[in-house]
UniProtKB/TrEMBL annotation:
The gene is def. Belongs to the polypeptide deformylase family. HAMAP family: Pep_deformylase (MF_00163). It comes from Dyella kyungheensis. Fe cation binds at residues 91, 133, 137. This is Peptide deformylase.
Amino acid sequence: MSVLTIIEFPDPRLRTKAEPVSVFDAELKQFVADMFETMYDANGVGLAATQVNVHKQVLVADMSDERNQPLALINPRLVQKDGAQVYQEGCLSFPGIYADVTRALKVTVKANDVDGNEIEREFEGPLAVCIQHEMDHLAGKVFVDYLSPLKRSMLLKRLEKQRKQAATA
């Protein structure tokens, strides 16, 4: 396994729409394993293939404290959503930036597993937020798109300030 490079906003590749996966082989399984290693290495809870510059519909997540509940969804499709919740989101492509975003409280997703089998799962609470966030990446959306122009501008200025400070440190 290997740690992949996570691209950071405002890199335009984060706006690329991912293509469906059609081949379920050892190469895909290795890529998913690399995504998990990358996510765990970056102390994240979710990662979309778009964030590592692979524009295929693949996402991984693990919100367990022990990091022992890995979830990989290939070609995920949202089939139902219910309720609403506000959750403070962060993103590995926006290091150190967090904002409250309103998303569905419960979602039902159809997807494939790494072997190509069709699965349908229901997610609720923080894991539902994570799945929606990563699915947005696959559609070329980022979480700051949900913010007001003023709030988005303030967060992006903070991100730029952090980068300048890191460059001079």
